[in-house]
Design a protein that fits this description.
- With about 120 residues, the chain is mostly helical.
- The chain has a two-stranded antiparallel ribbon with strand order 1-2.
- Strand 1 and strand 2 form a beta hairpin.
- Helix 2 packs across helix 3 and helix 4 crosses helix 5.
- The longest helix has 17 residues.
Length: about 120
């Protein structure tokens, strides 16, 4: 398994798909990296040699994208800022409710978690 930026990318997949395992690289950026490195789009990640890996790494660092830990830290700090200023979105994040206007009377189970039964009566 090749290793880039501290992430082990799957070797049996095509390079563009393997690069997506790095947080902050999606389909568009992965295709851009493969094109700039001059790699065959059908090449598997296991088939990359050291020179090609270093070329891919050079392209990633050259673009100065926020990736992995830096990106996670940036997102976490944005959420903390929203919560600190007590804006509507921050309050919704704090309470674990949907943030972008979705309905909550039904659905929203992903965000709210499992149902918490209230007032269930036991039969005697």
């Amino acid at each position: 398994m090749p290793r880039l930026l501290g992430v082990e990318i799957p070797g049996h997949k095509k390079v563009a798909y393997s690069l997506r395992y790095i947080n902050g690289i999606g389909p568009t950026r992965a295709d851009l990296i493969v094109a700039e490195a001059g790699l065959d789009p059908n090449m598997r990640a296991n088939d990359l040699d050291e020179e090609q890996l270093s070329k891919v790494l050079h392209i990633i660092t050259e673009h100065k994208w926020l990736l992995e830990g830096d990106l996670r830290r940036e997102i976490a700090s944005n959420l903390k800022r929203l919560q600190a200023i007590n804006c509507y979105r921050g309050i919704r994040h704090r309470r674990g409710l949907p943030v972008r206007g979705q309905r909550t009377s039904t659905n929203a189970r992903t965000r709210k978690g499992a149902r918490k039964t209230i007032g269930a009566k036991s039969s005697k």
